Structure prediction request, 235 residues.
Amino acid sequence: DAAMLARWRGLAYHELAFEILSLYIDDIPATDLRALVSRTYTAAIFGSEQIVPLRPLEPGVYLEALSNGPTLAFKDMAMQLLGNLFEYVLDKRGEAINILGATSGDTGSAAEYAMRGKHNVRVFMLSPDGRMSAFQRAQMYSLQDANIFNIAVTAMFDDAQDIVKAVSNDAAFKKQYKIGAVNSINWARVAAQIVYYFQGYFLATQSNDEQVAFAVPSGNFGNICAGHIARMMGL
Prediction:
């Protein structure tokens, strides 16, 4: 509502992230969640105190800088948090997880850089052989962390994604091998992306009576889905 928007307007990014995520995350104590979010969204990781600064292109048109993370992809915004959430929950439960994902480039590197070295997490990332940029291949295939596994599939990205979806639909297989996902079918990832729509709105406006339009380059729809949810929340 208007009162909540007014209260959120002046918050730092990590504070705003805590407020929004705590509406959906009720199984992590508030003090722990606040610490996780504060550790995730720092200038050291994202290169700016604002985390997602607005860059003016022309009067009334801005670029929201979502590519300041360690792999230069907007997916760092959610993946960095996801890595910390996985590690926290798995440590508490004394469990391990195998992350299975598919990538055409940016999802894979963002996930691997978020999960590298994390306790009790192994990442198996499928990618289309020879169909990513040299930069993206170098980002992923150069990682030497023992918990990161790159698997090149001799097919298209959609074929790799179909493998992940098939596994996700096999509940018994998922349970037996403790398989989780980091693609846009992961709700925690979408929830984390909601935050930068609110932040972008606050940076672009002077009051909560103003309206903005977001233009979203979107592949598998996870990014703009987060914007749609932000609008359903009242933004």
